[in-house]
């Protein structure tokens, strides 16, 4: 293994992992206030000039795809559907050569209206976040009464052909911890793919506690009260979800055990925040400022070099279980989940 990042080529780190999956946050703002993500009053949002413009985003994604071997581009936030230029950004990214796979992680509000245009623009897939099917709980959890809008968004995505439609759910003790079987039944009935995610220490309020989070073991035990789960013979690769066949298959359910069964050794992610910072990991404490370089006139070679250097320094693991673990100062909504 070499002792420094190469002058050209892919985004490799000193442990030999290669990042091919780019997460791009399009905004830190959101129209929900999920309790595990943001405080009720929201956050001090990035100021307009701090945000990358649509053209700057497309340029950096182009550098990643053309020069750094990125093959997957996922737009997220904050809530990416509230970015006015989203459809144009997707159009430009889907037109890159080689064409990356293009996907979106969203809370689903407004997706019923936008899904056809996004599909036409070249969007391949969506993940919609939905933690509960109970309207009262939804309002408690997200602090907004928008369950119907999310359900309409899911249906709109499926109707537009953005398949497979995946649902991401986070379970919280004392709130929706008992809902795993109902969420899976709902997903099976509608041909959506459910993935349940362990809650991570990424909330702006720093309210996460290892002792109270719902673990993958508990999630699986809860699902098994209603379904037979057997190990999925399919290759997992760099996918964060461990998948299980439901009642013998072919339907599957995924569990993303970021905390209790970390998959950092297989991680293939690189992240770009809405203000143009490269992060090697959700839990990184360092960032590399591509916006400043870009606005100072850096050419594509220089941007690619800086991106490689940033990824070379990626740590071996997130270290949530280490006594010295420090939660990143940026919350999930400002990194891009
Ligand atoms: N607003 C969009 C959404 O909710 O899908 C995209 C951004 S959101 C930060 C991306 C994903 O991160 C969502 O599925 C959300 O449930 C998840 N998330 C947010 N905070 C989390 C936390 N503390 N632990 C685990 N997942 C979290
Ligand atoms: Fe918004 Fe997504 Fe955070 Fe919920 S998880 S507050 S929808 S950014």
From TrEMBL:
InterPro entries: Aldolase_TIM, Elp3/MiaA/NifB-like_rSAM, MoaA, MoaA-like, MoaA_NifB_PqqE_Fe-S-bd_CS, MoaA_twitch, MoCo_biosynth_MoaA/MoaC, rSAM. Residues 14-232 form the Radical SAM core domain. It catalyses: GTP + AH2 + S-adenosyl-L-methionine = (8S)-3',8-cyclo-7,8-dihydroguanosine 5'-triphosphate + 5'-deoxyadenosine + L-methionine + A + H(+). It is an enzyme of class 4 (lyase). SUPFAM superfamilies: Radical SAM enzymes (SSF102114). Pathway: Cofactor biosynthesis; molybdopterin biosynthesis. Signal peptide: none annotated. Its EC number is 4.1.99.22. [4Fe-4S] cluster 1 binds at residues 30, 34, 37. Monomer and homodimer. PANTHER family: MOLYBDENUM COFACTOR BIOSYNTHESIS PROTEIN 1, MOLYBDOPTERIN COFACTOR SYNTHESIS PROTEIN A. Catalyzes the cyclization of GTP to (8S)-3',8-cyclo-7,8-dihydroguanosine 5'-triphosphate. This is GTP 3',8-cyclase. It comes from Micromonospora tarensis. The gene is moaA.
């Amino acid at each position: 293994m070499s002792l420094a990042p190469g002058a050209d080529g892919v985004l490799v780190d000193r442990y030999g992992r290669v990042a091919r999956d780019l997460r791009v946050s399009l905004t830190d703002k959101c129209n929900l206030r999920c309790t595990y993500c943001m405080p009720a009053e929201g956050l001090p949002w990035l100021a307009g000039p701090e945000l990358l413009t649509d053209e700057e985003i497309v340029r950096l994604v182009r550098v990643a795809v053309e020069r750094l071997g990125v093959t997957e581009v996922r737009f997220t936030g904050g809530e990416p559907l509230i970015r006015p230029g989203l459809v144009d950004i997707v159009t430009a990214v889907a037109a890159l050569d080689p064409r990356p796979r293009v996907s979106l992680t969203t809370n689903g509000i407004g997706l019923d209206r936008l899904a056809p245009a996004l599909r036409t623009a070249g969007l391949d897939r969506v993940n919609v976040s939905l933690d509960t099917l109970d309207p009262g709980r939804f309002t408690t959890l997200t602090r907004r009464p928008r369950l119907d809008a999310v359900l309409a968004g899911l249906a709109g995505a499926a109707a537009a052909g953005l398949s497979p439609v995946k649902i991401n759910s986070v379970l919280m003790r004392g709130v929706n911890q008992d809902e795993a079987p109902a969420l899976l039944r709902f997903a099976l009935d509608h041909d959506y793919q459910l993935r349940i995610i362990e809650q991570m220490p990424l909330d702006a309020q720093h309210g996460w506690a290892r002792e109270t989070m719902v673990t993958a073991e508990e999630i699986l035990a809860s699902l098994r009260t209603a379904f037979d789960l057997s190990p999925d013979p399919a290759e997992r690769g760099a996918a964060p979800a461990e998948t299980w066949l439901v009642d013998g298959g072919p339907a599957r359910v995924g569990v993303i055990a970021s905390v209790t069964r970390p998959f950092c050794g297989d991680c293939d992610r690189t992240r770009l925040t809405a203000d143009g910072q490269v992060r090697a990991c959700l839990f990184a404490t360092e960032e590399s400022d591509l916006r400043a370089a870009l606005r100072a006139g850096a050419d594509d070679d220089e941007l690619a070099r800086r991106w490689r250097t940033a990824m070379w320094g990626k740590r071996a693991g997130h270290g949530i279980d280490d006594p010295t673990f420090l939660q990143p100062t940026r919350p999930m909504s400002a990194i891009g989940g």
